[in-house]
Amino acid sequence: MTIDSSTLSQARTAALKASQAFIPTATSLVSYQSSGKLLIIGTVDQAIPLAKQLSLYLECAIILPEHSPNDYVQMSAIPMTRGKVQKISGYLGHYYVELMVNNQAYNPAILFNGHHEFIDLILDLTEPPHLKQEIFPVGYYAPNGNEAIVAALLQELPDMMGQFDKPKFFNYDPNICAHGRSGQVGCTLCLTACPTEAIQSQGEHIAVNPHLCQGAGSCTSVCPTGALTYNYPSLADTLNQLRQLLSTFFEHGGEQARVIFYSRDKAESMAELTNLLPPYFLPFAVAEIGSVGIDLMLSTLAYGAQQIILLSDDQTTPMVIDVLNKQCSYIQPLLTAMGYPVAMVKLQLWQNDLMQLSTHLQEPVILPNIKRVTYAGLNEKRTLLRLAITHLYQQAKQHPSEVALPQGAPFGEIQVDVLRCTLCMACVSQCPCAALSDGGEVPLLKFNESACVQCGLCQASCPEEAITLSARYLFSSELRMTPRIINETQPFHCIDCGKPFATQLMINRMQSKLKDHWMFQGDGIRKLQMCENCRVKVMFNEQA
């Protein structure tokens, strides 16, 4: 039965009203403090005219290129110097600039009254800018030759004084982070996905600078464990708001729901676009489109949406677009394997021609009706993925046992070359997710696929290079969650006391590597066949 457009329109209106009434959980704030010290970096022709205008509102200083005429520096009423910028780091109210002047390091913050260490604001007029990240820190402006941006900055910069607050966008749980162990590097997905360069490696864990983070969300999407989660709104809040949107739509007679995810700062344009679309299209604002990962996408389908559209915009950076493409590439094989059309998940680039964009969004496609789940949102990524995929699998036409996934997907197994593996258990001690375990007194290696996030720490730590990663999804919960033996052998017993202490392969490997060592010549080779206690006894007897 086809629902008339009037009913669908009323359903959408009710759904959007219910969604907009949702109040997310409050979060902590990140504060910036600016006293209006502005450093302008550029040529004489660029910097001085702007400094004269902005000095009416801000305390300005200028850095000119190192070969600029010296008379400007000596005669200007605005503090300035010449030099080569070596480094810029920091954020609004806390910028540190390192300048080379006559082959000596120089901090231009001393140009300002009071000889401060840090600078509040930077206007970088060089082309290209000194900073290279896709999203600049708050308080760093680089128009890159765009005069329209320069004109806008003349209006914006005078207001950049005082205290500024923003939400803390992320939560980080180091206890489930798979970045590193014992000097080995595993997962680096968040490091390569952050367009602000706010994330740094700190040995076994990572550190996120909350003042540099601007909530792009791509780090939370790629994190395989859920160690990094979006904090405002939280994943649970986002899912509960989404569930409210869809349930209200269906309760008011709606059907064939298609959810369009878009960044909140595009709200005005999205309202215009929504009016051009049929009423089964439901716009859903997120803080940033990069925060929509596979957990949110699959949960949306489980909540009853027939299609998900990720709508990027002109501010979405290439790094975030790449993350979204990869997230879609992980979902598409899952959908195909279960007999669902890949069109259920679609990444659509923004177009300023809204009529043309609406036409692209309405491309005809046959989409299935799926029984909806009603469970509440969670902040546990792996649990959400398991629940959503299990539900979609139960509703699917096809029920394969497994499906191969692209490299980088957060599911899979490891394959062990049993001819190389000595069962030294280095991989067990390194695994951050307890996917690997030993057999206690019995030399065997067990693997729990449900816990594996394909971080690669086991592979990096294996001294025999016996481990390879294999991304896939095993649909059977029982097989996925039951530890299985992936290598085992008989224990090697001490030739003196009979204690099991190693494996035959490990002893063979040690004998091969140490056969030319002076300590293990002749009968000395027998020491390698003894447990640690018996070996010590023999060595003491030899010295007596």
UniProtKB/TrEMBL annotation:
MF terms in GO: 4 iron, 4 sulfur cluster binding; metal ion binding
All copies of domain 4Fe-4S ferredoxin-type, residue ranges: 204-233, 412-441, 443-472
PROSITE patterns, A to Z: 4FE4S_FER_1, 4FE4S_FER_2
Protein keywords: 4Fe-4S, Iron, Iron-sulfur, Metal-binding
Signal peptide: none
Entry-linked InterPro entries: 4Fe4S_Fe-S-bd, 4Fe4S_Fe_S_CS, Fe-S_Ferredoxin
Keyword Metal-binding: yes
Tagged with keyword rRNA-binding: no
PANTHER family xref list: ADENYLYLSULFATE REDUCTASE, BETA SUBUNIT (PTHR43687), BLR5484 PROTEIN (PTHR43687:SF4)
Name the UniProt record assigns to this protein: 4Fe-4S ferredoxin-type domain-containing protein
Highest classification ranks of the organism: Bacteria, Pseudomonadati, Pseudomonadota, Gammaproteobacteria, Thiotrichales
